[in-house]
Amino acid sequence: MFSKSRLKPKKAAKALTIPRMEMLAILIGVRAMAFVAKELKKPITACHLWSDSQIALAWVNSSDPQPVFVERRLHEIRQHAHVSFHYVRTDQNPADIATRGANPNELRAKKLWWEGPNWLGRPSRDWPDEMSFSPREQDTASPGLHIPTSDELETGVFSATAVNKRPRNMHDSTAQSIPEGPIDVKQYGSWNRLLRVTILVLRFIRRLKPDHSAIPMGKPLTSYTAEDYKCAENFLIRQEQERFNEKLACHPSRLDENGLRRLRTRLAAAGKPAPEMAQPILLSEESALTERIIERIHASMHHGGVDWTLTEFLRSYWCPKARRTVRKVLGRCLQCRKMSSPPFARPDMPPLPADRVVRRAPFESTGVDYMGPTTARMAGSLTKVWIVLLTCLTTRAVYLEPTTDLSANSFSNVLRRFISRRGRPKRMLSDNGGQFVLTDKTMKELLPNTATGTVQSQMACQGIEWKFLPSLSPWAGGLYERLVGLTKMCFKRTLGRRILEYDQFATFTAEVEAVLNQRPISAVSAETDAPVPLRPVDFIQPHALISFEIDASDNWTDKTRLPPQEKLALLWKSTLETLDNFWTQWSSEYLILLRERSGWKHKGPRLQTRAVPRVGDVVLVEEDYRSRNLWPMGRVTELNGFPPNIRSVQLKMVNGRVITRPVNRLYPLEVRSPEPEPVPTPEKPTEPGDVPEIGKPEPEKRRDRNERLVTR
Description:
Layout: H1 18-40, E1 47-51, H2 54-61, H3 68-78, E2 83-87, H4 95-100, H5 104-109, H6 111-115, E3 132-133, H7 191-208, H8 226-243, H9 245-248, E4 253-255, E5 261-263, H10 275-278, E6 281-282, H11 288-300, H12 306-314, E7 317-318, H13 322-331, H14 334-340, H15 354-357, E8 365-378, E9 381-392, E10 398-403, H16 408-422, E11 427-430, H17 434-446, H18 455-462, E12 465-468, H19 478-495, H20 502-517, H21 537-540, H22 564-597, E13 618-621, E14 633-640, E15 648-653, E16 658-662, E17 666-668
Parallel strand pairs: 1-2, 6-7, 8-11, 11-12
Antiparallel strand pairs: 2-3, 4-5, 8-9, 9-10, 13-14, 13-17, 14-15, 15-16
Helix pairs in contact: 1-2, 1-3, 7-8, 11-12, 11-13, 12-13
């Protein structure tokens, strides 16, 4: 019905001896029987397996310790307790034909291959019985965990000398399936809580026994002694050692008076002064109890590093790959991750938005920001003055206007004057400064019933689309932050400590605006015949300067004698040609300059988390002017963007408030398993600033008011 054979690997010629290969053949047969029984889906009353190797059968039937390679395969064979093993001579073994090889014609004529030996069709009592056994005939029952009797109990819960009932040979249990004990260590994250639950469970089990002794009267059920904790710890260690008995059997060990398996070392001479260090308790690196013990030691060392925790752990315990295990456990420590986990890395810079690289009308896309406050004299007294900066995202032109407050009425007046002078913008971009939040609230709440109509409704009628940047991400507003720095430089270097009258201050602000609009935005050359560099004012007033040379080959015509309509047409044509020339120069010089200056990587700290935040992640939220141990925690509820281009997220804080923060101010607290990098989504031109629209802006923290001309 089913057969299978395998070739001997050449690389393992020395390690795979004949008895080991015969044992592997038994393992293949056991697996084949399990496969056939599963696929037949019919009840099977008995399973018999024959082998022509008495050595391999003796290994299966014996409980003597074997090398690790042999022991692990014997353990899998012994798991099939329903299989009866028999010895068959080689000349009566059909499997021997497959090992020697035969062509189809020879195989067709071999009756042994198709029908088996002659005695196979007889009753089982007539089969050869040179060597027959079944694992269930042996003592395959699990020794389980010993429950202390009343004779073993002292005044406390139970005596520390109570040990598990074990086989005479430590390695006998490798052939047995050890069930889990009554305490599931994985269900408890606290070491102290695990010990208390263990004490209560063992008290309950003790009371179920007929020979139990009652707890002394007047002693509370939750009253624990040091001996109780020590006995509970020994019980848990014995339970875990039984579970991982097969893996621990390959290490030299012995049983102490408490039934704990201890590692044999060459420090026997140091046993008296340091018995625990000379023969530490043997644990498995895969055990959950090992992790709980490491967590307890790590907390007792005041969350010290790997070396501190490992040194203290090895004083009393030992496990394979101890350093790796300690590092893994400490990597999940929440308190340590709060203080040492790196922030999320910002994604690569996206392509420049369309408002930066596509020809558009001046101030069609506008960025707005406040700077200040500074001081000016008004009616003989000092007053605070702010400066509203509006800049064109395409031509980099600037509009500056002072204002005396941050109210919605004041900002609406500035906006109306700006629209009257420069035209109505279609898109506006700003940060989440306190003055913008105040203006937005005032426009929505305080001006709905004014006679002139709300500014919000006026803006809606005008078709202005307003977008806010994520909170606490000033780099996203670099379009206007750079101009804020240039404006501050002009004020500080020119005025110094002087305080102007408000009218003089407004005049000086207009002069600074004119200077900024005359700054070059393309390459500047000192050559005599080099073209004049491009300036923002050239797009606002193209007739202000016409620097292109007149072609000498053209016939000169005295335009003063032309009719008025022709003179107007020539002037109009000249203005349009001049503007087109400026846009041509903008496309050929300014865009190339942007290409050379553009980058893809953000500057950040050396250690960053390259993973992308996901909905549901618990993170630590960075706050300025506060120590890291005081930063609040939040849960990611929404991603602003698509992986891997996540630049900001929405968080739900402990108090229920929903905020927006950039990813580089978030520190992940949860340990993730390695996952493949997400597939990048195709980039496409976005709106100014390349930031998602946030429904409700959030106020940023106010900075020091004593500093002059600080961006709000």
